[in-house]
Amino acid sequence: MRAQLASVATRFVNATSRRLGRGQGTVAGGRVGLRVDPELLEHLSTGRQVVLVTGTNGKTTTTRLVTVGLGASGDAVASNETGSNMPEGHVAALAGTVAPRAVLEVDEVYLPRVLTATAAAAVVLLNLSRDQLDRTNEVRMVAGRWRAALAAAPRTHVVANADDPLVVWGAGAARDVRWVGAGLRWQRDAVGCPSCEGRIEFGEGGWACTSCAFARPVPVATLAVAPDGSATGVWSDGTVRPLALRLPGRFNLANALMAAVACEACGVEPDDALSVMATVEEVAGRFTVREFGDVRARLMLAKNPAGWEELLDLVAQGHVPLVVSINARVADGGDPSWLWDVPYERLADRTVVATGDRVRDLSVRLHYAGVAHTTEEDPVRAVARAADHAAGAVDVIGNYTAFHDLLEHSA
Ligand SMILES: [Zn+2]
Predict the structure, then answer these.
(1) How far is the CA of 111 from the centre of ligand 1 (A)?
(2) Are residues 103 and 231 in the same domain?
(3) Stated pTM of the model
């Protein structure tokens, strides 16, 4: 009864705030629902197959891929698509639907609590890297909390990236883990062994601690990318599945492989899941081509060094001018010193325009990286200025609020 009332309250507040033009209203509605029934997430999860997706990078995209993948079963699948990835957002996503399956993006720090509340059928662990330096917990502490929570959830299937030692530590006490060889370009947050305080060494095809037995586990599926960019997932039983996506970049192929293994753990054929994932063209505006006047801009989000490391691979192949926009607002984390961890040196051959609230911090960093660039405080004018160098097409990379500002100003 109380749960029903709380669900109705959640839906009512959400509908009202949407009508008033105050955004999707998911946080507001969910907050009210949880006030009425503090165990609302438990109640809304009962009788559903729930999959949780967490990690520092790629959660929103992977959540979308698992959602469409599970949809290949013919079942309706609920998801917190607006990206509000704490319990308020989760109850809002579940309150309005009777879908028998749900895929929830979860903030890394909230995983233990949400896992307990939802009794999830599967959990997908992508990576752990530093993000929002001024307020997020230290990544090794987060890995330790995952480890304790997953050890206490013996019925949950865990799908975890075998190439991230912190993720392997976090998943390592769970009863059923399907390791995925998804790769890890950014390794600098994982050089200390979480098991013995020794040193992790990365080499061809794996990693291991130099002082104890902690080492890369054997994956059930591994990402293989050919020099021509074509990719496959190689399962340990010898099955090779083509990975063809409209989403760009190696990191999205890795996300799709993780998603396919999660779908398999939930009883959906990976071939069926992958064929639907291949149709996804954008996720929450990322990778879309938008127009700013007569300029066509490909919009990309990178909010921390790990995200940048992956995107630099993608944009280093291009030739169009690049706009980089950096803010340091609450949702970005107030400390932009992480810019010094990003290998911007690789942009030395590109035409770069720096912008955003923290254009000066960015400009200093680019200067020391040897990247010739111009600065423009206004992001929309920065896009126009970059286009002066080319025939109306540019790449744009922003961190969290910078990306969303540009998305709002585009058509
Ligand atoms: Zn060790």
Answers:
(1) 25
(2) yes
(3) 0.86
